[in-house]
Structures are given as structure tokens and as C-alpha cells.
Amino acid sequence: SYIYYDENMIIGFAAFRYIDNYLCLSEVQFNTNYKNKGYLRELLKNVIIRTDKDRYDKVFATTKKDNILAQQVLNHIGFVNTENNRYEIEYTDLLNWINKKTLTNS
Length: 106
Known about the structure:
By secondary structure, this protein is of the alpha+beta class. Helix content is 29%, strand content 37%. Strand 2 and strand 3 form a beta hairpin. It is globular and about 35 Å long. The relative contact order is 0.16.
């Protein structure tokens, strides 16, 4: 797991584990005051830095069927819904999104 801080306050976290050749993002959450401000990119960057790249080629996350916001965020990053709300992305594609620099910080 990785906990993301702003000074001394926890603003988000990500829980992850390895399953076969995948990195599974089993939980990602943010304090509502910090949503839509570019912190997700930094959180995922820190998760990737802390993982053993030799253990996976792809990253996946699942959502509940009615969690439209999470699905939109995953689609925005480049995850693809492969089946039953299981979203997957190639490691290199996620890394490209993490390293992408734009004026809008999308």
C-alpha cells in the first residue's frame, strides 16, 4: 500500500498487490478536497516506483458496476474495460500517462 500526504495530512491512498503478471490496484481513494487537482498522477507514480516491475506487464483495477466516476477516471487514464468492470492497461501506457505533461494536467 502507499499513503499520499500533503504535509502531515493523509489525502489519499492506494492498495495494490500482484496477481499473475498483473499489478492489481485493489483500492484507490482520495479526500474529496483533493480530487481533480492532479494528485492521482503523483499517487500512481509513487505506486509504480515502489513496485517490482519484473513481476507484471499490465495493471488492472475493478469497479462496481454503478461507480461511473471511477470508470470515467480509468478510461481517461487509458484503462480498457475488458470484462465485468475489470479495467486493464499496459505498464508502458500507464507510465506514459504518468509522465505526460500538459497545461491542463489531465
